[in-house]
Amino acid sequence: MKSSRRVLYSSAEVRSAIIELFRGGATKRIAISAFVGDGADAYLPCPNGLQLICSPTPGATNPSTLRLLLSKGVTVEFVDGLHMKVYWAENRGAVVTSANLSTNAMGVGGLKEAGVLLPPNEVDIERILNQLKPRPAEPELRRLDFKHRAYWKRVQWTGTRRKNNSYTEWFESPSREQWKFCEYSIVSEDPSDTAIQSVRQEFGKKPYDWISSALPRVRENDWVLCIYTRGRQQQRIYWLFADRVFKIPRSDHSLDPDRPYEVIQIHRPKQYPPPPFSIDRRFREAAIRVLLSSDLEDLDSPCSLTTGHLRALHAAMQ
Question: Whole-prediction pTM value?
Answer without folding.
Answer: 0.76
